[in-house]
Amino acid sequence: MDFSLTPEQKALQETVHEFAEKEMRPVSRELDEKGQFSWEIVGKAARLGLTCSGVPEEYGGPGLGSLDNVIIVEELGWGCVGIASAIALNNIAILPVLLAGTEEQKKRYLTRLTDPDRPRLCAFALTEPEAGSDAASLKTRASRQGDHYVINGNKCFITNGGVADFYTVFATVDPSKKHAGITAFMVDADTPGFSVGKIEHKMGMRASQTAELIFTDMRVPAENLLRGEGQGFYVAMETLDISRPGVGALGVGLARAAFEEALSYAKQRVQFGKPIIRQQAVAFMLADMATKIEYARLLCYKAAWMIDQGMNAIKESSMAKYVGTDVAMEVCTDAVQIHGGYGYMKDYLVEKFFRDAKILQIVEGTNQIQRLVLSTQLMAD
Ligand SMILES: Cc1cc2nc3c(=O)[nH]c(=O)nc-3n(C[C@H](O)[C@H](O)[C@H](O)COP(=O)(O)OP(=O)(O)OC[C@H]3O[C@@H](n4cnc5c(N)ncnc54)[C@H](O)[C@@H]3O)c2cc1C
User: Which residue's C-alpha comes closest to atom 26 of ligand 1?
Assistant: First the structure.
């Protein structure tokens, strides 16, 4: 078994790390403080191809695989989870078009994301106020009228909501059919009847914009339907099965950043006449943190590698997501602990890391839902 990355993957890792260090880190605290999305930084990421890493070369993208994406996202997560989310969730929002789009839809939408002259983003709009984990109970309604669908309803907590150029919107054509009525539509941000509601004021991940979307008699051409009526739930689930190792990798990158801060602090903070790293209780915490980061990364790599091989990776994707993000929460908690009272102050990076870690256990299916997906698969084995 060969654990080494290819020369291309190492070069990719170095490039993204340099971007994270030179472009993201210097602005991350200010954007976090202001709760501000920045087109300037996302535009730079777009020009490097980071916002559309999975878009095939024929549509102007770099055509990278899942493992490449995990490598990219870990470095972005190290830089700033807020900025990283705006970039990484864009890559997730691309997946429905890649998985279910017709050739014409792929050309129309993917080339907009790879336009070198104007950076653009897209968004994945599934969650509703009364349908989060239970996505099949969504209420947004789509009714066919001639060659259009008229869509009414609203979505909440949508990453890149209000800044995206287009959205994959999940609506039901027949609520009595539950998941079998759910249908996916490509919706342009300038569609009449589309509007952006509340912009959320969040605990962490504050450099990415999270918004409510409102659809009022929104008329979407029937040609914008993805894969067919009643296929939307499957498109959403297939998307999440592929995207989850990336969220785990966001956690790995964040955990690595927090670990580095904690290690350096433990070496220089002196109490009882010696650096606190000389206290076995602190040293063992650091040993556990390093081990957790290593096994979380291995799970993300394995799940992504399986996806690249075309294998069924539903179980491994869920494992990668919940282990990667649980490890992020644990490591960031311990990093604050190692900093003592200083770790609770905004002057120290670990304060931000701790707030950013929490959301990763919630997005893309909570970590309880990951265990549900995994245990359901185990029962079927
Ligand atoms: C910052 C942010 C960004 C987001 N971005 C997007 C986005 O871009 N697109 C999008 O569509 N959505 C997005 N979401 C929504 C996110 O995916 C949901 O918040 C998440 O799926 C949970 O849904 P919920 O918040 O309604 O919680 P609920 O589903 O109400 O869950 C509440 C609690 O109950 C637990 N729970 C529920 N059902 C079960 C069960 N069967 N077994 C065990 N435990 C259960 C959950 O784990 C959780 O702890 C985002 C959310 C946030 C906060």
Answer: 132
